[in-house]
User: What shape does this take?
Amino acid sequence: MSLPLEGIRVLDLSRGVAASFCTLVLAEYGAEVIKVESPDGDMVRGQEPLEHGMGAVFTALNRNKRSIVLNLKDDKERDKFLKLAATADVVVENYRPGVMESLDLSYGRLAELNRRLIVCSVSAFGQSGEWSKKAAHEINILGLSGMLKGLCDADGNPVLPVTHLAAMVGGSMWALVGILLALIERGSSGSGMHLDVGILHGIQSIMAPEILTELISGEEQVSGKAWNSGPTPSNCVYRTRDGKWITFAPMEAKYWSNFCELFEADNLAEAGFPHGERAKWVKTRVGGIIGSLTLEEFFEKASEKEIMAEPMLGISEALKLRPVKQKGTVFLIKNREGKLFTQLKLPLSFSAPCPENPPPEKGEHDGIYLTQLAERDDLKTILIVYHSQGGATESMARAFAKGASKVSNVRVKLMRASEATAGDLLECKGLAIGSPEYFGYMAGQIKDFFDRTYDEIGDRTFRLPYVTFVCAGNDGRGTIAGIERIAAGYKWKKVADSARVVGAPNEKTFMRLEELGETLAAGVEMGIY
Assistant: This one.
């Protein structure tokens, strides 16, 4: 079983936090993420506290990525980036608008090289408008968005959130959503696009309930007044006798009733969910009940019935919770030198295990990518064409691509048959064809692909090693025979027996496909076919 983003190559120009979490998620779920750093490195690489010389913020956001160093202000270095962009699916950047253009790396320039490329630009205020070139950091965005004022304490003093709320949610999460949607759309159109993520707009989007409440009611939504920030007795935090805090949320009638019964507060049972002065009175009474008990005493009593109350914990305490430990949220990754890096697991799990590669040293993978480009400009392409989008055949194609990607100096191009052109076929040095079988014949998209390319290529022969894989309700012989007839006409060389699967693909099939992909790519790279 493969991960959903295997075969997707991402060039990551992000620095700091604003888009790095986005590319972390892409890498976690199978994408090949190449972090392109300046000679000075990412700005948070050395930000304390350090773990084995790397900043905690950097290690949190950069596992499973590869790092290369390029000075994009240098013409030769920039040319290397352009060569990589021609092989990529996605470019992510968070420069100030205008910087990419000044480097001659505008979307238009990149799209000329690679029409399928998706470029995602993350900035404070978006790519257009009067403020587009204005710089801003996390705290500035929170202040401008209206969120920071909503977090002020009772005296009106701003309370800064401990997490990078604007960068992670307003920037990275919307960049991630946009990239995934663009990849789906590209599957239909065959073309990439330019995504514009403004962090200010992204953070305001999650404030929609508060913004609309203020617009409609005319009441400013700040802490203590906004419904979700404690004005109601049943959605609030209360302090215990020993100075600890409880998050208290019996917002449904049954939980409120349970609280009143357990703590002998019959005079509050009929209070319901009051507002205004009545709410203040109820809140004082609840505060008095909770404030008369220690945290342990309160929860000993509350354990008898469910009332929707929990202790307020610090980060270290929260990591000791049983569900957090059972999930394995905190784990360790070992690098080649045996050094262990502390990491935090993402919440989404697939049947296939996620990779566990340590955050890279600056330029650690220059040898894989840049030396290769410097020594040889003729990267050999493996073209994998498959029928349709989604389903078993695409999963098989991605497993084949995973194996082919293990071979250096080979570029893997994974395409739906409906998108591939004669140019793609003539460019490649190795071909894999994936098709289901319909009533003894190859799928229509595969047949159409060969028909279209024949119109341009004609009957000329050219050397090309190929592999076929088929998902069929029977033995798939019809499709295999059809492809072999076409291949014989072009004088192509069959690399191995066709991979076939009857019914749904299984782990054994995927392993076989990975082996075939690596075999084809290795043979192409060494020129033995």
Residues 165-189 form the longest helix (25 residues).
